[in-house]
Design goal:
mainly beta; 14 strands
């Protein structure tokens, strides 16, 4: 007995790329093993699934990366949220960064827009975060075994740092 799955249904399950029009266009990339270059125009981007390689160019609004073993690069974003495990995210500049769950590796420059303070939040276990700070920044680290390496641009004061949990390494590298 053969199992017949319509091609359209199978494609929707394996790789779904949906763009919806709203006040801000949102691009959703969902699936496994997708390689794609995406030009942002101040839109939100959501990346879900596993083993996707995504290159985001231009200015994105909010970027959500959820799943496992994604490789994502971006040039600029308002907020970046990384959730899952073993994701590798390399960025240009973001206003705020959130990294949660475990074993993610993220490298970003934080610079707030306007008078607001940039924020970095790290939770879960054993995430590695490398940040260059180009504005006043607040760093919060919770959970177990995170490594946060931070440096500051010339003329920028050291960040306000809050740490809870166990076995963290949070250090200035310049």
């Amino acid at each position: 007995m053969k199992l017949h799955i319509p091609a359209i249904g199978l494609m929707a399950v394996l790789t779904s790329v949906v763009t919806t029009a709203a006040s801000s266009e949102e691009l959703k990339i969902e699936g496994s093993g997708i390689t794609r270059d995406v030009a942002c125009s101040s839109n939100d981007v959501g990346i879900y699934g596993a083993n996707n390689i995504i290159k985001l160019t231009g200015k994105c609004d909010d970027i959500v990366i959820h799943g496992t073993k994604h490789e994502v690069t971006f040039e600029s974003a308002n907020d970046v949220s990384v959730s899952g495990s073993e994701n590798k995210v390399t960025g240009g500049q973001a206003d705020d960064l959130s990294v949660e769950v475990a074993n993610n590796e993220v490298t970003v420059t934080l610079k707030s827009n306007g008078n607001a303070r940039a924020e970095l939040e790290v939770s879960g276990a054993e995430n590695l975060v490398n940040v260059t700070l180009e504005s006043d920044t607040k760093i919060e680290v919770e959970g177990v075994g995170h490594k946060v390496n931070w440096s500051v641009a010339s003329g920028i004061k050291d960040p306000a740092i809050s740490i809870s949990g166990a076995n963290h390494e949070v250090k200035k590298v310049n």
